[in-house]
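Milestone M4 deliverable, item 7.
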Amino acid sequence: MKISTILDKIDGNQLFVPAFQREYVWKRDDAKQLIDSLVKEYPTGTMLTWETANPPELKGPHKYSEKQGAVKLLLDGQQRVTTLYMLINGDIPPYYTAPEIMNDTRGLYVNVETLELLYYMKTRMENNPSWQNITDVFRGKVSAFDLQAKYAEIGKALEMDDLKRLNDNINAITRIKEREFPEQTIPVKASIREAIDIFYKVNASGVALTDAELALAQISGYWPQARDRFKAKLVALEKEGYVFKLDFIVYVLLGCLFHIGSDMKKLHDAENGEQIRAAWDRLDKQVLDYVVNLMRTNAFVDHTAEINSPYALVPIIVYCFDKEGTHLTDAEIRKMVKWFFYSQVRARYVSQLPQKLDRDLRTVAESPQPFDALLQVIAEESGRLEILPTEFVGRAVQHPLFSMMRWYFKSRGAVCFTTGMSLRRNMGSKYQLERDHIFPYSKLKEKGYGEGNRIKYALAQELTNRAILTQIANRQKSDEPASDYLKPVKTSFPKALELQCIPEDEDLWSIDNYEMFLEERRKILAKHLNTFLDQITATEITVAPVSLEEMIAEGESDELEFKSTLRWDMREATVNKKLEEVIMKSVAAFANSGGGTLLIGVGDNGDVLGLEPDYQSLDGADRDKFELHLRNLLNQQFGTGFVTSKVSIKFHSIGDKEVCQIVSAAAKEPVILKAKDRNGQQTEKFYARSGNSSQEIPLSEMSAYIKERFHS
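Output delivered:
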């Protein structure tokens, strides 16, 4: 389809964008690269559309009527199409509102002499006729002859060859509208679910959408109002200083419904519709507001800008959600806040977010004292909880210790040095908090702390050289020496310096003693922060269960064995029932020894393979059918009584794969395995664990083993 036709169909209500599509997120460089590729006639990708007489909710004001018949929806390529619409027409397309345009990519300029593309730069483009707004070029407002007059105004005469080159380049731009976008079409007969599945597969092969965005697309397919409901809440929270993205809401829903953070596909099924609506209703009307108020009141967090990872709020939200709307006790709040502070100081969620949420949300669901257990995890992974003075060395305000410092100051009732106003949330933008150099950088630079010395520059920018002021105070403060700045503060607000942990020894305020000042303030801050964190509440040492990931990482042992599949032969790519006998052998061996765990869906080397091959071998079965088949095998082999009392079966998600865990307790009587030999004759065998494998005990040794194991 020609680009001009695509844009006409958008204006003519013939091509729409479904509501489950995300906002416009392309950046200016993306837009520039697209136009550059089109000018050079490079490939620019395809467009995926869907013709349907039963469309989902549409973006924009247009409401579908059955009288329209089948309409065409744009599923893939809408970022490119939106870019072209804005650059060619100069307007936002009708399916978007201004707040949905994350980056306005209009205002691209083209050099009509060289076809170079840039966004407006006054120094290069002012009074230079070569640079023209590309939208004006597309609209036919730029011609070589018009430019000839403009060049003449700046004293440059154009020859015929110059005019021809300008004309060719202008035509190269305008011809973009006649370029074809290859179109792939999903047929009319496809259902909404099928169309979204295709949308998912197309986007999953690239990096355009996150897993959370793809999950939101699926949710919007079976709950059309979801995106608007979520966005309305985000707007309300933003007014309170808590700024989140839609991804955050999806992680919250996944955590509340499934206590995991990694398997977004669990939200894809339309069967979740009623459950998600109910969960969101409670989150929207009660839980999210409750958590925001808790964080502001008890953790002194007035803005999410103070948090290094807002995803630390997910376990807190899930915990409050699990409480069924009842308010937390003082002890619960204190433990939660203490864990939150350490999650920030020790940067719990700055990497491996889904995996860490998996572990932490499982703890929230299973532990009687979840925040004690979660704090233990941070202590184990970080090596310590205590903050050392050396941790401040060279750390800038972007480091989480600065946020911790700010929360602590607010908890003490610290005040602005100039206005005397509390550092707690103040009304009006001019009273927002800013971080100010105590020793002005201009003075430090004169002393050799400039960019030429990386180590000294880091010391000049160190967070211990910062005080926290209101914006109005910071604007009024000049680059006066630290001693001239701090002495009046000591007089006007006698407690102000102590409340912000600033050394009050005036000798340290001399710029010659700058590094001594830093060293002293580091000690004061470390001491005060550790005392503050310790005294929030006492936490108990909990016995945290070993996670499945940790078990797998330890490798096979006499109590742990891995099996790739239950019945699917990976090498031969077919069902192999001999593999089922191997599973039974392992269960029997554990029972005849001290008990143990068998993991199905994990390779010998610890790679998580998942259960999908086994599911497919059972005619595309799911977890329930797999478990039924496994239990039937166990019951036939060992009897219902043994399976009920000695065998436990659980399923776990690791990333996007499922693993089956079979825990076999130690049996009180010998467990004999019935199997067929090579001739098909029924035989009885006795297995036990030997190291990390299940070994058959020879008849000659069986009596002694049974006597020692079962009758000693």
